[in-house]
Amino acid sequence: MTSRTLFFGASKMTFKKVSHKKVRTGCDSCKRRRVKCDELKPICSGCIRHSLDCSYSTTIDTSGGLKPGSPDISPFSFSDFKLMHHWNICTAETLAPNAALQRAMRECIPAMAVNHRYLMHAMLALTSLHMAYLHPTEIEQHERRAAHHHSLALPLFRSALASVTESSSHALYACGHLVIKYSFASPQSRRGLMFSPATGTSSEIIGLLRGAFSMHGYAEKWLSNGPLSFCMERPLDENPDFSQNPNDSYLVQLLYLLLADCSEESNLCCAALNSLRRLLAMASTPGQTISVKTLTYSWAVQVPQKYITLVSERKPKALIVLAHYCVMLKMLDSFWFMEGAAARILEQCRQNLESQWHRYLEWPLSIVGVYGGEK
């Protein structure tokens, strides 16, 4: 350490020159420019200031692993920083129906995403789709960015699901719900939300719904005591009066059809239909404390797994019940990521039913309407 002495008149001031430890880590852009990097993630201050892409290379030792203390790989760019900004000022507000849930989206999820990369990618993927929705002239660019982040989020998300812990449960729960929203809004959903045109098999949307909401069951204690506790919804009444739903008579008529025989298929479809009746009654109950969105999504968890199999096999009665579920999905059309989802699923049900079954779709069609293709 050296010192310098300066004289100002009769006063003497001594400044000690502090030596800096040479930093060999930092983002690639700062290394190329040979400037000190503060190593903020996902984008350092220098790259923000100079509008540069920010990424971190990995230091590999001879054993093929990361050297102790080496920085994480950062696949995020300056474009992603702009997406994060859009999430905070716009997208987060559009994902939830009330102030508490909006706060969770705007504050809690970004904070958790800093430590859970799958959540960060899921957040950026959904934001990219929102940008595509808002800016149709740039749709290809934004959808490509969305697909990029979604492809990075899913493997990390699935890997983390293999060993859920108390500390990871909150981020996994949040990520599951973002992936659901992405699945409804993605370009692929416009071509085959319930059934894939390429393979003919049922899509993963119901599986995603079941997975996300089942976590609430086995990790409820953790979730209730964590950063998302204030937005955990509790039902007003889990056994509502079906008459609260003014349209319950249409579902009762369908129930009589299903009860015409005592086959296992009919019993499974009856169980799925009664779950739908209960949820619609809850949604119609004054003072209900659970959002319509949560009630709608939870149907996929409540129906028997064997009923889901019947849907994938395109059994007529199962598809008719699914078509009636579209009436509840229609309630979510005001959310940009759900817009048109009910009509698309209903149209797929209609296309997979022979004409003699179409008369049982009259009520759902009158509520949901006919899907007219992509916007």
Could you provide a short overview of the structure?
57% of the residues lie in helices and 4% in strands. It is mainly alpha-helical and 375 residues long.
Pick out the low-confidence regions: 1-21, 58-73, 197-201
Largest beta-sheet details: 2 strands, antiparallel
Measured between the Cα atoms of the first and last residue, the distance is 68 Å
Question: How many domain modules?
Answer: 3
Measured on Cα atoms, how large is the radius of gyration?
Answer: 26 Å
What is the count of DSSP helices, taking H or I runs of 4+ residues? 17
Shape: elongated
Mean pLDDT: 81
Level of helix content? 55-70%
- Strand arrangement in the largest pleated sheet: 1-2
* Structural class by sheet pairing and helices: mainly alpha
Order of helices and strands: EEHHHHHHHHHHHHHHHHH
Number of strands: 2
Beta fraction: under 5%
Organism: Trichoderma gamsii
Keywords: Nucleus
Protein name: Zn(2)-C6 fungal-type domain-containing protein
Pfam families: Fungal_trans_2, Zn_clus
